[in-house]
Amino acid sequence: MMDGLTERPARNGEHGATRRRLPPAERRKQIVDEAVRFFAEVGLEGKTRELARRLGVTQSLIFNYFATKDELIDAVYEKVYIGRLSPDWPERLTDRSVPIRERLLAFYSEYSALIFEWEWMRIFMFSGLAGASLNQRYLEHLGDVILRPLLAETEVLAHTDTPPKMEDVWNLHGGIAYIGIRQHIYRMPEPVKPQDEIARAIDKYLLFFGIDKEQ
Questions:
Q1: For the CA atoms of the chain, what is the radius of gyration?
Q2: Residue 63, exposed/middle/buried by CB under 10 A (0-12, 13-18, 19+)?
Q3: How far apart, in whole angstroms, are the C-alpha atoms of residue 37 and residue 16?
């Protein structure tokens, strides 16, 4: 089954205009992919009319796939944020047969490769500025599946009179995420070797709680 709503020809200056009809799944993916680029560029206040112009389709075609703009933004959220979280990360982070430093390095190497991107950083920034729920939902999910398990592991391994708190885990995580913020939001040079800086942050975290790297 092809989508049956009207598509219009490209006009001068339009991006990604398409004249052929597409199967629904392919069309939906096309809309979401372009919405990711669009909202990363102009923010979540961007108009669906402009998005349709870039796609080279009618606005009504977009709303044939997404009943509201909020529903479209939810699809962007799923693709850019939730869809990038590997389902095996919680298990790997809590696998005590592997030293904790090795677990953290593996996780943050993979995680940073996914979030140190222009679209991820800018949509996250625009969402926060707009007061949208996207950031809160993502951070709550991240806290549940990644950061709280990491806190539990730290509590088990710590050798210090100062018990670890959730804030300590957020400080580690936020400091690593800031490497990408510097590059894509502030347009400042990133470290020459970001993975070296990630390793340094992890080592400082473990040292603060007296955790042996080989534990």
A1: 21
A2: middle
A3: 11
Q: Is 57 helix (H, G, I), strand (E, B) or coil?
A: strand
> What whole-number distance in Å separates Cα of residue 179 and Cα of residue 137?
22
Please provide the DSSP assignment of 59-89 as one string. HHHHHHH-SSHHHHHHHHHHHHTGGGS-TTH
Positive or negative torsion for Cα 136, 138, 141, 145: negative
Nearest to 175 by CA among 139, 200, 192: 200
Task: Please count the other Cβ atoms lying within 10 Å of the Cβ belonging to residue 49.
Answer: 10
Residues 6+ apart with CB under 8 A from 26: none
| 211: pLDDT strictly greater than 80 | yes
Cα 50–52–55 angle (5° rounding)?
Answer: 115
Helix axis angle for 166-184 and 100-115, nearest 10°, is 40
> Which amino acid, residue 125?
M
- CB of 66 closer than 8 Å to CB of 30: no
113-131 confidence digits (pLDDT tens): 999 999 999 999 999 888 8
- The burial of 91, by beta-carbon neighbours within 10 Å (0-12 exposed, 13-18 middle, 19 or more buried), is given as exposed
**Residue 11 DSSP class:** -
